[in-house]
Amino acid sequence: MSPISGSRQRQRSRGPLRTRWLPRWWPLPVCALLGATAGGIYGAVKTPEYSATSYVVVTPAEKADPSVALGFAQAYGRVATEVAVIGDAQVWAGVSADTLRRSVQTATSPDAPMIAITATSERAADAAGMANAVARALTLDGAHSQKDTGVRVVQFSRAAKPVAPSSPTASLTALVGGCAGGLLGGLSLLARPRRHEEPGTGPERVAAVPGPAGSACVPQEVG
């Protein structure tokens, strides 16, 4: 074998030896570990949030169709965070109108004339105060328009001060991050190209072609 072909084979065999000790699936546990670590750190440093919910029910007035209350419950649920309603709520809750719009969400049911008013805040007392303030303002607004609508808006249940945060804990965020990291690691395995074949096993080989008399052999690759 000529010196040129020998050096060429050594260069081919040197590359796979660098990563031969690593299994092919090594990105999967590494990405899962990185994702779990990042998720755990995020859950530990993030400020916990508290949620409180107050319920308001719409009932038909005297000689009113009961089905009308369901329609007005949907309407009141949409305008619960509008300026006309939260104008008084911001005074009772002690926060601005913009804070109420960002922190308060309403939900209605297609089967019952009930409105759920949920407020979220970094302080448990503020979450309960905002939910009750919006519910109180909604009932007051309903009382002013009762003669025109034919329904009454009554606070069904007051929001209580939450005792535990509603935001995910550090262990949960770590679990979610680990799952996301494992998924990305699996996708990277599918996208990785296959390893090159071992030296000497491929279809390509080196052959020495004899040259003219008295000259050295000239290496030539043949397919």
Radius of gyration from CA coordinates? 35 Å
Biggest sheet details: 4 strands, antiparallel
Query: Number of helix segments?
Result: 8
Strand portion, in percent? 15-25%
Protein topology:
Elements: H1 3-18, H2 27-45, E1 50-60, H3 66-78, H4 83-93, H5 97-103, E2 104-108, E3 114-121, H6 124-144, H7 146-149, E4 151-157, H8 170-191, E5 205-209, E6 218-222
Antiparallel strand pairs: 1-3, 1-4, 2-3, 5-6
Structural overview:
- It is a single chain.
- The protein has helices at residues 3-18, 27-45, 66-78, 83-93, 97-103, 124-144, 146-149, 170-191, and strands spanning 50-60, 104-108, 114-121, 151-157, 205-209, 218-222.
- By secondary structure, it is an alpha+beta fold.
- Helix 2 (27-45) runs antiparallel to helix 8 (170-191).
- The longest helix has 22 residues, at 170-191.
What attributes does this structure have?
two-stranded antiparallel ribbon, alpha+beta, 223 residues, 18% strand, 4-stranded antiparallel sheet
Structure summary:
The protein is α+β, with helices and mostly antiparallel strands. It is built from eight helices and six strands.
